[in-house]
Amino acid sequence: MKKNRRITVCVDAEVRGRGIGTEMLKAFITRHKSESMELVTLTENTIAIDLYKRNGFEILWEKEGFSVDNPKPRCYAMSRMAHK
User: pTM for the full model?
Assistant: First the structure.
C-alpha cells in the first residue's frame, strides 16, 4: 500500500501563462497515473480550476481555506481517479 504524499506546487507569478503549470501537471499525472489524486485550490483561481478540470479533476466540495487572515478564502477540494 502506498503512503499518502502531500506536496505544494505553484508557478511563479512572473512566468505564469507560459504553459509551465500545464506541463508540470501533465508530467505528474503521467508519472502517477495509477494513483488517485486530490488537491485544494482557491475558488477564485479559475485558470487553475479550468486546468485541473481539463486534466480529469472534479470538484468534490467547497470549504473555508487555510489562512491567518479574515475572512478566510473559499477553496475547492478536487480529485482525479486513478487510471490503470
Answer: 0.83
